[in-house]
Amino acid sequence: GELAEVEYSSTPIFQLAVPRSCSGVPSEVLLPELAWKSRGQFYDTLQHLARRYMQNFATFKDGDRYVGPDLAARISTGGPCLESLDD
């Protein structure tokens, strides 16, 4: 379909692949930071959400007992990355 042919951007912190365009979809929907009155508030909220995600995910730090150390390490790298805002 159409989305297989469009360019994607990576979101900060959560590194989600988001299409840059899609017929009939406003860019504010595709790129949520455009819908906020203040990009600073958007990024502050995104950082807050990432920290909460990381705190919650820490409760599963013993997950390697259930899925093995290799898979647990791979899963943990899929979470948010606060350093990505520095790029």
From TrEMBL:
It comes from Haematococcus lacustris (Green alga). The lineage of its organism: Eukaryota, Viridiplantae, Chlorophyta, core chlorophytes, Chlorophyceae. The keyword Lipoprotein does not apply. GO terms for molecular function: ATP binding; kinase activity; phosphoenolpyruvate carboxykinase (ATP) activity. This is Phosphoenolpyruvate carboxykinase. One of its GO terms (cellular component) is cytosol. One of its GO terms (biological process) is gluconeogenesis. It comes from the Eukaryota. Keywords: Kinase, Pyruvate, Transferase. The keyword Kinase applies.
